[in-house]
From TrEMBL, chain A:
One record GO biological process: transmembrane transport
One Pfam match: BPD_transp_1
Native source organism of the sequence: Eiseniibacteriota bacterium
Regions crossing the membrane: 12-35, 74-95, 107-127, 156-180, 210-227, 263-285
Protein name: Sugar ABC transporter permease
GO cellular component terms attached to this protein's record: plasma membrane
Classification via InterPro entries: ABC_transporter_permease, MetI-like, MetI-like_sf
Keyword Membrane found: yes
TrEMBL record, chain B:
Highest classification ranks of the organism: Bacteria, Candidatus Eiseniibacteriota
Pfam families from the UniProt entry: SBP_bac_8
Keyword Transport: yes
CC annotations in GO: ATP-binding cassette (ABC) transporter complex, substrate-binding subunit-containing
InterPro entries: Maltose/Cyclodextrin-bd, SBP
Biological processes per GO annotation: maltodextrin transmembrane transport; maltose transport
Stated name of the protein: Extracellular solute-binding protein
Matches recorded under SUPFAM superfamilies: Periplasmic binding protein-like II
Keywords for the protein's UniProt record, in alphabetical order: Signal, Sugar transport, Transport
Transport among keywords: yes
GO molecular function annotations of the record: carbohydrate transmembrane transporter activity; maltose binding
Length: 296, 410
């Protein structure tokens, strides 16, 4: 270690400023958050907060509500990422064909991602209105369905937020997949076609394996983003409406911290969220072998 | 060569230091506010006038949404920073004072100076006043479209009758194109006038919640009837929908506050203001919550700077400035002297607004209010959606509010 340090002193010196910045903006807040999670810091204990051990963790784990919210978060994350990747790859395959006006389609399809989440979520909230929202109006006009109470029913509000987030999130996966597809050599498809492989087999045995190295990190990123996506759930359901039931873990924590000023409790909650995500990512990287070095 | 290469590091380090230290010179008076756009324009003008009259004094105003202002001010204050002045609704002084982020005003102003304000604009918490009020109100009132109805209803029964008459389903699809009444049912703030009309209130004199009361059950039943029994309100009616419908002339009456009137004027709606109509049986007026908006002084402001800040504050909240706000935006001044001015006395909007304030009830500024709002919200929504009976909703509110307050006090 010491010998590497002295041998590569200059590169390390160059790295020093950014290391310092990382230390200040990442490591310090992280450790401070952990300290908070072990304390009773709250509105009434701002100036006399003291350590209470794992009290906050115990309270959280004993709350039955935690498991309901956790289950909802798991469903929220899985459904969103599933459709982001599914729609993303599907659309990318269409865009990868030589079709007329490809550039226009590509620009249009990336729009959802280019728009500010806040505006999109508010717009969708308006579209989900029971009597005047465009979704119910269209459902009534085209399918002759009765209006759906999207925002006043617990399950439907959850579905509404999910639809909004799927719409917002698929373009990212589309762009990533499209980039990966364009780097697949055409010879592979030609060779497969000569061997008599059907379109499905070409997709299954050429496209998918070649997409994997790119899509695996994208999916882990997507999972973390979706798991921690406060905006969409918070805005579409107006902070948990109806009846404070539409929550995922992050909105639940946000409320504890900023409505009730329960800083210690919220900090402990965020440590738990961190651990859940860390566990997931490690498991995911291990099972998909994303970190295995390519042998050539 | 190797020895000299270390100099490459100097520019980024110098940059970091420069960013960290900031510039020198006269420090401007910093104000954080959560004003509406129209309010901000007038405020900017007042600031400009003050700067011209006091060369060398500069202001730095930052705008936040109400919620952001609260969290940002807390975060900055706890880290030993934050602005000199923070402007916002009176209930934000609750957490700020508990966290010791602001100074008690009563120790900084003389009796005479304090007496210049209307007593109902000064909020007391823990025996101290924590903000210099700039405006009074923030109260709900009945706004009625004078093209659709000829006079404001006088009782709640009349309100229902009037609304029924103007609720119209033009194309016969079962969904009215125009409704008699709209207001934001998803916020419990709008339920308070009905609670008080039936004789209830949210807490007792010891700040303990009193949400499970016959009055609450009656009020919730009344709300529910507006939708299910009388059909005079849309099924999902949040703030945006209510506001838009009134602006488009698709709602004859709306219950809304002073912040909204300017936009109705701009939308070309002919409207009148009236007290929320009384409950005929008891003769009680619904009492919307009344609160003030004003400036609190950060706890770091001391010595000469405090003198400077207090002088600026005195000018910013002067009678003339308050009348300016009142005439342009319809806000009620907090200074008593402003009410002697004929411009205020002769303005119909301000007269009606004041009439509503006179029967209103002060919004408590204690921190427990956050739990009360947060607990009332889902219960009122569930009653509105038909998933909870009023009596059960009232019982749950009380139980959950007590538990939440205990949790908060931890």
């Amino acid at each position: 270690m010491i010998s590497t340090l002295s041998k590569h002193r200059f590169p390390y010196l160059l790295l020093l400023p950014s290391l310092l910045v990382i230390l200040i903006v990442v490591l310090y807040p992280f450790l401070y958050n952990f300290w908070l999670s072990l304390s009773n810091m709250s509105l009434y204990h701002i100036h006399d907060a003291h350590l209470v051990g794992f009290e906050n963790y115990k309270n959280i784990l004993l709350e039955p509500e935690l498991y309901v919210v956790l289950a909802k978060t798991a469903v929220w994350t899985f459904v969103n990422v599933f459709f982001h990747v599914g729609i993303g790859i599907g659309v990318a395959m269409l865009l990868n064909q030589s079709i007329k006006g490809r550039g226009v389609y590509r620009a249009l399809l990336i729009l959802p991602w280019a728009m500010p989440q806040y505006i999109v979520a508010l717009t969708w909230r308006g579209m989900f209105n029971y009597q005047y929202g465009s979704i119910n109006l269209l459902l009534g006009k085209w399918l002759h369905l009765p209006p759906v109470p999207w925002l006043s029913n617990e399950t439907l509000a959850f579905i509404a937020a999910t639809i909004t987030n799927i719409w917002l999130g698929f373009p990212f996966m589309m762009i990533v997949a499209l980039g990966a597809m364009q780097s697949i050599p055409a010879e592979l498809y030609e060779a497969a076609a000569i061997d008599g492989a059907s379109a499905w087999r070409r997709f299954r045995h050429v496209t998918l394996p070649m997409l994997k190295p790119i899509m695996v990190p994208a999916v882990s990123l997507g999972t973390i983003w979706t798991f921690n996506n406060l905006n969409v759930m918070w805005i579409v359901t107006r902070g948990g409406q109806p009846s404070d039931k539409s929550h995922i873990l992050v909105t639940y924590v946000y409320k504890a911290a900023f409505t009730y000023y329960r800083y210690g409790y919220a900090a402990a909650f965020s440590v738990l969220i961190f651990l859940i995500l860390l566990g997931f990512v490690l498991w995911y990287l291990k099972t998909t072998h994303a970190l295995r070095e390519e042998r050539r | 060569m190797r020895r000299r290469s270390i100099f490459f590091l100097i520019p980024p380090l110098v940059f970091l230091l420069a960013v960290g230290c900031g510039g020198g010179g006269e420090k401007p008076i910093t104000i954080w506010e959560q004003m509406d756009p129209e309010e901000r324009d007038i405020f900017a003008h007042h600031i400009e006038v003050y700067e011209q009259e006091h060369p060398g004094v500069l202001f730095e105003v930052s705008h936040y949404s109400t919620d952001d202002l609260r969290t940002q001010f807390q975060t900055a204050g706890m880290a030993g920073g934050g602005p000199d002045l923070v402007f916002g609704p009176s209930d934000q002084v609750g957490p700020f004072s508990v966290m010791q982020l602001i100074q008690p005003i009563d120790e900084l102003l003389t009796h005479e100076e304090l007496n210049a304000f209307r007593p109902d604009a000064l909020d007391t918490l823990d025996g101290h006043i924590w903000a210099v009020p700039d405006q009074l109100g923030n109260h709900l009132i009945l706004v009625w479209n004078s093209d659709l109805i000829s006079a404001a209803p006088m009782t709640l029964d009349e309100l229902i009758e009037t609304a029924k008459n103007v609720t119209v389903d033009e194309n016969g699809d079962g969904v009215p194109e125009r409704y008699g009444l709209v207001f934001n049912v998803s916020e419990p703030f709008w339920a308070i006038p009905f609670l008080t009309a039936f004789g209830g209130w949210i807490m007792d004199s010891n700040n303990k919640p009193t949400l499970d009361s016959p009055a609450m059950v009656e009020a919730l039943q009344f709300l529910k009837d507006l939708r299910y029994r009388y059909g005079i309100m849309p099924a999902e009616c949040d703030y945006e929908l209510a506001d838009t419908m009134f602006k488009e002339g698709r709602a004859a009456m709306i219950i809304n506050g002073p912040w909204s009137w300017g936009a109705y004027k701009k939308a070309g709606i002919h409207f009148g203001l009236a007290r929320l109509p009384r409950e005929a049986k008891s003769g009680r007026w619904p009492a919307p919550m009344v609160s003030s908006k004003g400036y609190s002084i950060g706890n770091r402001v001391k010595g000469d700077r405090l003198t400077l800040v207090l002088d600026a504050l005195n000018s910013l909240t002067s009678v003339e400035n308050q009348i300016d706000f009142a005439m342009q935006l319809g806000t009620l001044p907090s200074r008593q002297a402003a009410y002697a001015d004929t411009r205020i006395q002769n303005d119909p909007i301000l007269r009606n607004s004041l009439a509503q304030v006179e029967v209103g009830r002060k919004m408590p500024v204690i921190t427990e209010m956050r739990a009360i709002w947060d607990i009332m919200r889902p219960a009122v929504q569930s009653v509105w959606n038909g998933t909870l009976e009023p009596a059960e909703a009232a019982r749950q509110m009380q139980e959950h509010a007590v538990a939440k307050i205990n949790e908060m006090k931890g």
